[in-house]
């Protein structure tokens, strides 16, 4: 054993490695990404790992591994769980042989996601047991126990961490590599009565799952992850707090050391530890539930009170005592607790902190997506056009001055949403933007659907040769795997032509005139057609040379700043200026300047 200062996601990865995980599969998505990346850095040749095309593929790869008796880990964020839901729902009915843990990173806030969905609620829906860590140390321990539970009960198990645990740091004690468990898969044993899902099997297994979860509720009530932290002697109304995850840390800090309130900590929200909750409730008159995001504990306590005839007032989100959405903080929890007990609570000494600079979300200086959006915008001036966007860095194309994202729903949806608009408004010129990684994850199906159903739209593939938004992970088009192998990259152009598209053109978006002409020509073609704007992410290449402004030639028209919105461009003394610390010499501003006052870049 030794002590390491670890991020929560690193601790989860090391916990999985210590448990002898054989296969790790996932799709990158903040705040989950570092789990698989840490496995790649710290794992050995005993573990196979991959960035899958999407979360559905990752879940199915892990299921196949677990069928052999291997231990498998799936990593994703909460919206990625939606993509994996199809195989997961059936997998819970079929069951597994080896341990299968699904690490889902929820994102209260949301800080970097489309939704605030709560995996604890999903666990109830899917009937899958869920662990909910309150600290980095607990996350490390829970992932190992999750594998044990999964194997013992032949079920997938969720490990639901949230952003503040995933990206929090703590010095914790971990096993030395020599102490890591070695797990040997016995291999797949053919048995169609077990591994082939049919209605008869589903009905029988559904009944088993319900009985299992009822039993697990009693067993987990005795787990160290579920406990009551006793308070002092109370006068008058007997009050308590029920909480979970990182909110347990918020509650403890907000209460301070001398508070009288007992605290119920729920570490396994489903199956809910009802027996422990009943013991907690019998001593109280009122309970405040402090949780993110859904009122999972609140509803469970209300149900327990009704089931056992307890007259305890349960307060929380449903009663308006806690906010219905958003991320909690120590301060917001302290305020809620103070209102609950009717008195002020001890506050930590305030320390002066510097005012952080405001940085609105914006495409990076030199980002090829800016050049791509601008080329389409210039080409379509004066036309009735709709621009359907997608999930990725390029969602930032919605910001002024580009204003080139009219819709954004979920990964891959830009292509299919554009079809829906076209079929209702056939006189509208429809564009659908999709990134290279997203194209492989969920864009191909939409293109096939458009081609088959005779839509008229232009697919714009923004190919920057990486999965940029989540940290530059490889994908099928990069020619690299997570195992470090060099493979033949999958050609996006070949895929599109294989579907049946006759018009597919690839162009460098930084060749502005050619890019504009290409958009004008291709978009005029009937049916489904595609342009691949191909240029590497600005973070992948060092600038060869940087652009600069000739102040004598600059007329101060501001076109470069007003139309591009590049963070490296700014006004100074009535002239355009370039921040050399940000410029990577993409040359787009040079091509936009009407008087040729900008030069020196070297991108093309």
Q: Can you describe what's shown?
A:
- With 604 residues, the protein is α/β, with parallel strands linked by helices.
- It folds into four domains: 218 residues, 3-Layer(aba) Sandwich (Rossmann fold); 115 residues, 3-Layer(aba) Sandwich (Rossmann fold), CATH 3.40.50.920; 167 residues, Rossmann fold; 52 residues, 2-Layer Sandwich (Alpha-Beta Plaits), CATH 3.30.70.
- The strands form six sheets. The chain has a six-stranded parallel beta sheet with strand order 3-2-4-5-7-6, sandwiched between helices.
- Strand 4, helix 4 and strand 5 form a beta-alpha-beta unit.
- The longest helix is centred in the middle third of the chain and has 22 residues.
- The radius of gyration is 27 Å and the shape is globular.
- The mean pLDDT is 92.
Main features:
Rossmann fold, 22 strands, alpha/beta, single chain, 6-stranded parallel beta sheet, globular
Short description:
This protein is 37% helix and 17% strand. The protein is an alpha/beta fold and 604 residues long. The mean pLDDT is 92.
Return the CATH topology of the largest domain.
Answer: Rossmann fold
The shape is globular
Strand order of the largest sheet: 3-2-4-5-7-6
Class from secondary-structure proportions: alpha/beta
The largest sheet, given as strand count, sense and whether it forms a barrel, is: 6 strands, parallel
The average pLDDT is 92
Extended strand count: 22
Over the alpha carbons, how many angstroms does the gyration radius reach? 27 Å
Domain tally: 4
β-strand amount = 15-25%
- Helix amount, in percent? 25-40%
By CATH reckoning, the class of the largest domain would read Alpha Beta
């Amino acid at each position: 054993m030794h002590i390491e200062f670890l991020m929560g996601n690193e601790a989860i990865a090391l916990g999985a490695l210590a448990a002898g995980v054989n296969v790790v599969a996932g799709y990158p998505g903040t705040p989950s990404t570092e789990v698989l990346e840490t496995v790649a850095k710290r794992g050995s040749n005993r573990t196979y790992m991959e960035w899958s095309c999407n979360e559905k593929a990752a879940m199915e790869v892990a299921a196949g591994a677990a069928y052999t008796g291997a231990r498998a880990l799936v990593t994703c964020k909460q919206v990625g769980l939606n993509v994996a839901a199809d195989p997961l729902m059936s997998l819970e009915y079929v069951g597994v042989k080896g341990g299968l843990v699904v690490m889902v990173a929820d994102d209260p806030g949301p800080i970097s996601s489309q939704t605030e969905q709560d995996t604890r609620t999903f666990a109830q829906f899917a009937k899958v047991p869920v662990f909910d860590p309150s600290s980095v140390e607990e996350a490390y321990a829970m992932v190992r126990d999750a594998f044990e539970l999964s194997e013992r009960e032949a079920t997938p198990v969720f490990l639901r961490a949230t952003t503040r645990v995933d990206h929090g740091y703590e010095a914790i004690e971990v096993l030395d590599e020599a102490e890591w468990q070695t797990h040997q898969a016995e291999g797949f044993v053919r048995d169609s009565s077990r591994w082939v899902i049919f209605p008869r099997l589903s009905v029988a297994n559904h009944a088993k799952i319900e009985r299992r979860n009822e039993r697990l509720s009693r067993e987990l009530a005795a787990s160290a992850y579920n406990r009551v932290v006793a308070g002092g002697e109370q006068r008058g109304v007997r009050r308590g707090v029920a909480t979970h995850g990182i909110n347990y840390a918020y509650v403890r800090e907000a209460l301070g050391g001398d508070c009288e309130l007992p605290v119920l900590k729920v570490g396994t929200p489903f199956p809910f530890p009802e027996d422990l909750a009943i013991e907690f409730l019998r001593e109280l008159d009122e309970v405040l539930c402090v949780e993110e995001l859904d009122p999972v504990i609140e509803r469970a306590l209300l149900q327990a009170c009704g089931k056992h005839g307890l007259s305890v007032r349960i307060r929380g989100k449903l009663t308006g005592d806690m906010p219905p959405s958003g991320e909690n903080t120590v301060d917001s929890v302290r305020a809620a607790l103070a209102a609950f007990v009717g008195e002020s609570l001890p506050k930590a000494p305030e320390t002066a902190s510097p005012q952080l600079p405001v940085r609105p979300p914006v495409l990076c200086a030199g980002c090829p997506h800016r050049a791509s959006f601008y080329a389409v915008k210039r080409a379509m001036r004066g036309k009735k056009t709709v621009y359907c966007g997608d999930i990725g860095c390029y969602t930032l194309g919605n910001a002024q001055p580009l204003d080139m994202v009219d819709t954004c729903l979920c990964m891959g949806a830009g292509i299919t949403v554009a079809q829906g608009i076209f079929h209702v408004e056939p006189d509208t010129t429809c564009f659908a933007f999709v990134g290279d990684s997203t194209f492989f994850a969920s864009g191909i199906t939409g293109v096939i659907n458009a081609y088959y159903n005779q839509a008229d739209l232009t697919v714009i593939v923004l190919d920057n040769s990486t999965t940029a938004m989540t940290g530059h992970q490889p994908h099928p088009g990069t020619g690299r795997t997570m195992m470090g192998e060099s493979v033949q990259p999958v050609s996006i152009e070949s895929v599109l032509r294989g579907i049946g598209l006759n018009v597919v053109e690839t162009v460098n978006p930084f060749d502005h005139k050619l890019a504009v002409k290409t958009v004008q020509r291709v978009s005029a073609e009937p049916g489904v057609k595609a342009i691949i704007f191909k240029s590497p992410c600005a973070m992948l290449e060092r600038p060869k040379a940087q652009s600069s402004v000739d102040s004598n030639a600059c007329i101060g028209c501001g076109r470069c700043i007003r139309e591009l919105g590049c963070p490296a461009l700014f006004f100074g003394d009535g002239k355009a200026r370039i921040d050399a610390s940000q410029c990577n010499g993409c040359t787009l501003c040079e091509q936009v300047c009407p008087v040729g006052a900008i030069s020196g870049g070297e991108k093309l």
